[in-house]
Amino acid sequence: MIGFFAIFVSHAGVVGAASSEPIFYDTPGPSVSRPLPPEYVIHRDGSVTLRICFNWSCARRQTMTFTPNDMALLKNHLALCLGPSVDDRLQHVRIGIWQMQLLAQKYQPLLANDLAINELETGIAGRMDCVDSASNTTTYLHILRDIRELAGWTVSAPKVRSRFDLTAVHWTAVISDTETGQPWSVDSWFRPNGHLPLVMPLQSWSDRKKAWEPPFARINSAPHSIAELCDTRPLGVLGAAALSFQ
Question: pTM (2 decimals)?
Fold first, then answer.
């Protein structure tokens, strides 16, 4: 329970009571050392109530509702990127996470204070570390899956690297290609909330490769429009390298 509202963990499109008005519950919580499991419910009218967390290690948790109009706009943006290539499918995921971050920020403006990484964030309300980012991104991925916007992907549990190094431990959300089984990192921590996340093969992420450098730079571009992001060009040499790069 959060406040007086029961949140149901959805793994197959759980449908709850219809609601078209935003619902908010804001509570402190004990800090955690690993991402929280997703908590959300998809209502009959298309609205979605979900729990997000922030202020580092989920020290603050908020339940909010994205309205039917919010979700319809999300789907409209996602419809601009429907290409079948791995490149386009990854951009589809990136757009979905970006748009859901913006929706969360709409209802909790403090999230606009989040900066890339953790630098200069100490004491700033709305800050997010990798535990917050991986928690929220995994929740968004589960919702995208359940509203049928994650074609070709399955959602896995978050993964960690450098677990026993307190100065380097880092978590990421994870998806896997249903055809190849290739797991991919979906890492929102390296950019502020409301920006496109970084994607790369999970093994490359585990090896501490940089998603903003070749061969992953193009697939992690941040252009001015979705049309530029999803232009349906063939995956090409760079995409093939990204798929095989370890």
Answer: 0.84
